[in-house]
Amino acid sequence: MSKNSLSITDNRTGKIYEVPIENETINTKYLREIKINPTDLGLLTYDPAFVNTSICKSTITYIDGDNGILEHCGYPIEELAEQSTFLETAYLILHRQLPTKNELDKWINDITLHTFIHENVKKLMEGFRYDAHPMGMFVSTLAALSTFYPEAKLIFDEELRRKQILRLIGKVPTVAAFAYRHTKGMPYVYPDNDLSFVGNYLNMMFKIAELRYKPHPVLEKALDILFILHIDHEQNCSTTAMRVVGSSHADPFSAAAAAAAALYGPLHGGANEAVLTMLDQIGSINNIPQFIKTVKDGKGKLMGFGHRVYKNYDPRARIIKKLADQVFDITGRNPKLEIALELERIALQDEYFIKRKLYPNVDFYSGLIYKAMGFPTDFFPVLFAIPRTAGWISHWQEMILDPEQKIARPRQIYLGSQKRKYTPISRRG
Length: 429
Ligand code: CMC
What we know:
The chain is mainly α. It is built from 17 helices and 6 strands. It has helices at 77-83, 86-95, 101-112, 119-126, 134-148, 158-184, 197-206, 217-229, 237-246, 252-264, 271-282, 288-296, 315-331, 336-349, 351-355, 363-372, 380-400, and strands at 5-10, 15-22, 25-26, 61-64, 69-72, 75-76. The strands form 2 sheets. It has a 3-stranded antiparallel sheet, with no helix packed on it. Helix 6 (158-184) runs parallel beside helix 7 and helix 13 (315-331) packs parallel to helix 16. It starts with a strand and ends in a 29-residue tail after the last helix.
């Protein structure tokens, strides 16, 4: 019997099964051999919300949640945030290697050539209500992009796949900025391809009457770092949505729209918006103890705290907390920062949060920076979606090229009614 295996005794039959252990994991296909009768389906696993299930083998992102470690292709997030740029990190997670100077120049040039969107996409966006949530516009417009690039369906054509990757990364800032301008009733600003990826994005968001928009270098750098911090986080809810939808061989725009929809929720990318709403509701430091009591009584959550994988301080939150000071030096201090700092201090000493290993996550401080930079609260999830698109598309490509992957199709445990006879409506009580 191999040492790298698990012996399972089925007490119903007395049979012993040996299941290989590979990468600290067992493949559930072996459980299907555990059955009473030869015609039985075999044993299934029950894992709502995939709490203990690996859905793929990946070489993109490594997280050690107990020790608060995050690495992309082996590079610690702290080093990437300090020394890399968003587009370079996007190249890294797609190619698994840092680019040479020439490769990076070409990559930046290629992305920059795809920043414009079709005029009809603009017209489509004009059709949204004046008060439409920017994330709703973002999700719908991503899906609509698939109708402009029908060749995106040819997902196994390497050249075409690369083109859609460039298009997605290049166009999401434009779609996002147009969504913002729409809610403000301001004319859309076309991309300025002489600016950096982030500089151009700020230009499309905030340019008013100046001939040439000049982003503030500190804010441009800060947003670039925030984009690096949000680029990927392995099998989170939205990335899983991207993989699941992509597994049916839908085109990458449709799959990315599904991923963005998953990101929209307040338990995921909508949490940064929810944090600001929560800080508004708390209103003042004096109200924090009462608020914490409400959370502990199970009447709400401390938004921006807790994580499925991190049972320690989220390393991204640590970097963002430092970044906040640099941004506030330019923009002025956000008064809600005091509430957030005190909230964190109290929560980290409280038995409820200690016992459950609840620490600040990436969303706890990011919203305060976004707010200080002039982004409205309902826009925060979109700011998460722009960089995460690079993560989604990296996972999508990895999944498409993985010979072990198939259409995602989980099982269920049926607990409904047994077979019964249909009753005509006239005879129903
Ligand atoms: N405030 C208060 N209690 C919490 C919180 C919180 N933020 N998060 C978890 N708990 C409690 C939860 O009630 C449960 O308590 P009990 O054992 O008494 O039932 C325990 O901690 C375990 O939580 P869980 O719900 O089983 O954990 P999960 O892995 O299913 O959920 C989470 C992870 C991120 C959805 C959750 O922590 C949460 O809702 N946090 C607030 C929303 C948030 O900040 N989301 C952003 C996540 S980071 C960025 C991203 O991935 O998008």
